[in-house]
Amino acid sequence: MSQIEVEILIGGRSFEVACQEGEEQYLQAAARMLDTEAQVLVGQIGRMPEARMLLMAGLMLADKTAGLEDRLRETEDRLRDAEERIAAMASEVRALRDAPPPEAERVEVPVIPRSVTEAMAELAARAEALAEAVEEKSAS
């Protein structure tokens, strides 16, 4: 691959930079990032020596990059923890699926004798009759 010259603009100043053919868009993207930081400096401080502007803009980008790397590390740690929990849960599910079913338990349900059921029905009928009589007396 051959090298080509690309003109970039940073902080209102033009620079000629060489790059490999086909990498121009990456260089332009990087230059735009550096220019964004340089424009902030120019807006805050005004004109400054070229070397100082580039140094400060580079440091600002490095600071942002370090912050992003920290966030990425934290995200990777959380992802690793989540993957470990998922693996543990999957193992537990497999163990439960592969375990033999529990033995059936014998459950005895008491049977209410017929005479008690009939007595309860008789009591319910009497209670309804009493309720009707009370309603009739209170209505009159």
Automatic annotation (TrEMBL):
<keyword id="KW-0175">Coiled coil</keyword>
<protein>
    <submittedName>
        <fullName>Cell division protein ZapA</fullName>
    </submittedName>
</protein>
<keyword id="KW-0132">Cell division</keyword>
<dbReference type="InterPro" id="IPR042233">
    <property type="entry name" value="Cell_div_ZapA_N"/>
</dbReference>
<dbReference type="GO" id="GO:0051301">
    <property type="term" value="P:cell division"/>
</dbReference>
<dbReference type="Pfam" id="PF05164">
    <property type="entry name" value="ZapA"/>
</dbReference>
<keyword id="KW-0131">Cell cycle</keyword>
<feature type="coiled-coil region">
    <location>
        <begin position="65"/>
        <end position="140"/>
    </location>
</feature>
<dbReference type="InterPro" id="IPR007838">
    <property type="entry name" value="Cell_div_ZapA-like"/>
</dbReference>
<dbReference type="InterPro" id="IPR036192">
    <property type="entry name" value="Cell_div_ZapA-like_sf"/>
</dbReference>
